[in-house]
C-alpha cells in the first residue's frame, strides 16, 4: 500500500465532507472533554474525601442544666463529674479512637462567639447555656456508628453527632453532578458516533465508482477501507486534541488563574496538574480508536461490489 495514495485520499475525503467532518470534530471534542471532566471530578471528590474525612470529628455533647429541663435525653439531669470521667475513660479504651479532646462550656461559648458573633442570638447566650463536649478523632472515619452505639442514650449524654454526615451531603451533590456529566457525555458520544458513521457512509457512497473499480482489479478490502478509516481517525484525533486543550485551559483558568478557586477556596484541596496530564493519553487514544472502529464496521456493507 502506498502511503502517498492513502494520505491523498484522506485529504480528499476530509475536504469533500468538510461540514460533516467539522461536526464530527466538535462532537468528539465535547464528548471527550466531558469524559475527561468526569474523570477529574471523580478524582476531585476522592481527594476531598481523603482530605476532609481525615479531619472530621465525632462530637459527644453532654447535658447541661437547660437541657435537663427541656430535653428528654437529659431527663436525669446535667452531666456529673463522675459521668464525664467515665465517658472519657471508656472513649480512651476504644480501639477505633485516635484522640479525645474535651471542650468546656467557656471554650464552647468562645468558639461560638468567634464564628457567630454577628448573630442576634449570640448577644443573648451565656456560657452556662453552652454544652460541654468531647471531640473524638477516629482512626477510621467510617466507624462513627461504633461511637454512636456505645454512647447514644447514655446518662449525661445529650447527643452524638458525626461531622462526616454533613460532608456526605456535599459529596453526594458532587457525585450527582458527576453522574449528570457522564450522562451528557454518553449522549454526546452517541451523537459523535452517529455523525462518524454517516460521514463515512456519505464519503464511501460518493466514491463508490472508484472503490468498485479497485475491487474489480483485485485490491484488498483493507486497502480500500484504509483511507476512510483514517479519515475518521484523523477527525477524531483533532477532536481529542481539542478536548485535551479544553481540560488544560479549564484547569488553568478555573483553578489557578481567572476564577482562581485555589486562592478563593483555600479550604479545598484541589487536584494537581498531574491528575490532568495522566488523563490526556486516555482521551487521545479514545479519540483515535473510537472513530476508526466505528468507520470499520460502517464500511463493510457500503464497500461491497
Automatic annotation (TrEMBL):
It holds the Pfam family FtsX_ECD. The keyword Cytoplasm does not apply. Part of the ABC transporter FtsEX involved in cellular division. Belongs to the ABC-4 integral membrane protein family. FtsX subfamily. It comes from the Bacteria. InterPro entries: ABC3_permease_C, FtsX, FtsX_actino, FtsX_ECD. Keywords: Cell cycle, Cell division, Cell membrane, Membrane, Transmembrane, Transmembrane helix. Residues 56-160 form the FtsX extracellular domain. NCBIfam families: FtsX_actino. The keyword Cell cycle applies. Residues 183-301 form the ABC3 transporter permease C-terminal domain. It is found in: Cell membrane. Forms a membrane-associated complex with FtsE. It is a multi-pass membrane protein. This is Cell division protein FtsX. The chain crosses the membrane at residues 21-41, 179-200, 236-255, 276-299.
Amino acid at each position: 500500500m502506498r502511503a502517498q495514495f492513502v494520505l491523498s485520499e484522506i485529504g480528499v475525503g476530509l475536504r469533500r465532507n468538510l461540514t460533516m467532518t467539522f461536526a464530527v470534530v466538535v462532537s468528539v471534542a465535547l464528548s471527550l472533554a466531558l469524559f475527561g471532566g468526569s474523570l477529574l471530578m471523580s478524582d476531585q471528590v476522592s481527594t476531598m474525601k481523603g482530605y476532609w474525612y481525615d479531619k472530621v470529628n465525632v462530637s459527644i455533647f453532654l447535658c447541661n442544666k437547660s437541657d435537663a429541663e427541656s430535653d428528654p435525653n437529659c431527663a436525669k439531669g446535667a452531666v456529673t463529674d463522675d459521668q464525664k470521667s467515665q465517658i472519657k475513660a471508656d472513649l480512651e479504651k476504644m480501639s477505633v479512637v485516635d484522640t479525645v479532646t474535651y471542650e468546656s462550656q467557656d471554650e464552647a461559648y468562645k468558639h461560638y462567639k468567634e464564628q457567630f458573633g454577628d448573630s442576634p442570638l449570640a448577644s443573648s447566650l451565656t456560657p452556662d447555656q453552652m454544652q460541654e463536649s468531647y471531640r473524638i478523632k477516629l482512626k477510621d472515619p467510617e466507624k462513627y456508628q461504633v461511637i454512636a452505639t456505645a454512647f447514644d442514650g447514655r446518662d449525661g449524654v445529650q447527643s452524638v453527632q458525626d461531622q462526616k454526615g454533613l460532608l456526605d451531603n456535599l459529596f453526594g451533590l458532587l457525585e450527582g453532578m458527576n453522574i449528570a456529566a457522564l450522562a451528557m457525555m454518553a449522549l454526546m458520544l452517541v451523537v459523535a458516533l452517529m455523525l462518524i458513521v454517516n460521514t463515512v457512509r456519505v464519503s464511501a457512497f460518493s466514491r463508490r465508482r472508484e472503490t468498485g473499480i479497485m475491487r474489480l482489479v483485485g485490491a484488498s478490502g483493507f486497502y480500500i477501507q484504509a483511507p476512510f478509516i483514517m479519515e475518521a481517525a484523523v477527525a477524531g484525533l483533532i477532536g481529542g486534541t481539542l478536548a485535551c486543550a479544553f481540560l488544560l485551559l479549564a484547569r488553568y483558568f478555573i483553578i489557578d488563574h481567572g476564577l482562581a478557586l485555589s486562592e478563593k477556596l483555600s479550604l479545598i484541596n484541589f487536584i494537581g496538574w498531574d491528575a490532568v496530564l495522566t488523563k490526556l493519553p486516555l482521551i487521545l487514544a479514545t479519540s483515535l480508536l473510537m472513530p476508526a472502529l466505528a468507520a470499520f464496521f460502517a464500511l463493510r456493507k457500503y464497500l461491497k461490489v
